[in-house]
Amino acid sequence: MDIALCLLALAPLTADQYAQVQRAAAAVGQSVEDFARDAVLDAAADPFLAALERAVDTVTARTAEDRIQHDYAV
Description:
The protein is mostly helical. The chain has one domain. Helices cover 66% and strands 0% of the residues. It contains four helices and no strands. The N and C termini lie far apart (61 Å).
């Protein structure tokens, strides 16, 4: 079984959702398997996700003294 089909099996789709995936795959000239694989790889390589991961590392590495203090609320 193709890995893309395995990934689709982990995210169960309704018949309407699967039909939507089939239409999208056909629109770009790909099989459902290739379309699903590309979508999974694109999501994994999302630059926004990478930026969020870096932001978490940056924020957690800061000490209390490094953090911005908002005294205007006092």
